[in-house]
# Entry
Amino acid sequence: MKKRERISSRRLLLSSVMLAACGTVQAASFGTYSVNPTDTDGQVVPGFYPNVEFDVGYDDNVLREENNTQSSTFYLLKPEAQWIGAYGKHLLRFGYQGEFARYANTDAENYNDHFLGADATLDLTQKLNINAGAAYRWGHENRGLASAVFPKPNRWQEWAAKVEALYGRRTATAQIGASYEHRDRIFTNNGQFTRDFDSDQITLIGFYNLGPKTQLLVEPSYTDINYPNSDLDNDVRKILAGVTWSATAKTTGKLKVGHYNKDFADPALADASGLAVDVEVVWEPKTYSTVVLKVSRDAIDSAIGLGSSNYEASAASVDWTHDLTELTQLQVGLGYENDEYDTGREDDYLDAYIGISRAISRRVTVGARYDYGQRDSSDVGNDYDDNRITLGVKTTFD
# Structure
């Protein structure tokens, strides 16, 4: 991720119209903030950071259906505020993000999403660091097979908490760490209560330093997933091994490969196991150009019903941001995902976008973006193509 200066207006990107900065100040944060205040040395700059974004766009397949497609103009309002405080070596943040959508041709698709979060980084000793975070969300599911049959999108509420600790100096031969995360999601409409769940995940991690910029790692984890209103209770055991590196000033990344086992409590449901992958590489060939490559493979609990309990998701994406001038930035992205369900169904997703933004003043950025989405399903009637054009303006206050 690029180091982003607090005052640099050309880097205040629109989060939906443009490729937003995805880094966070604290490792345990549940938020993805569009302003990441660091100075030229990469140090966090404490302060209060409010901003607001307004978008207007057109979607030619709002419900993402194969037939009887419905188009609409839409309007998005996205307020955001975060406060960051520094107390010695410790950092504390509180944040809010909202997204309010209105569709001109279909009021049923309107939604109000909210996020409230807090996280902290505690630098306790030279060898011990603790990160902690908590969040509450009011959200909705994007349209697709799981919700297309309902008059309104599926809506949910979720709270989550996480704490992680890392022991050992970065310059030492080895470091060890552990984390615990809890999530609790409740669906609030469309009779989706059978999908309510809570989960507890414990992860251990060990690092072995090959040098000042390269570490080998091993990461075993255990996740217990409980569905109080259905028989999908399961637990996941996973072990990953790999390497993290920042070999040069141009390239950083992580590569983790391993195996997962997903076991269901109900003997009537088929267990799943297979290859697990988690890769993220950030390449900066120039100071004004960044390429991010991600690859993943994992088992996911199914939402389609019809006797399906899980599917294996294999995904890859590449995102490129390039500063055309001091004030103008180009964003391009391409993503692919293959989902193989335990029932034999197979879905292929293709997503692509291109956007451009320009800072017209120190605090105001405007932009435009085109998104294309496609699903090719082995189940008849579940394909779709979706085209979306968005224009937006974002104002940042400091």
Summary: Confidence is low (pLDDT under 50) at residues 1-27. The longest strand covers residues 72-87. Residues 9-396 form a domain with the Porin fold (CATH 2.40.160).
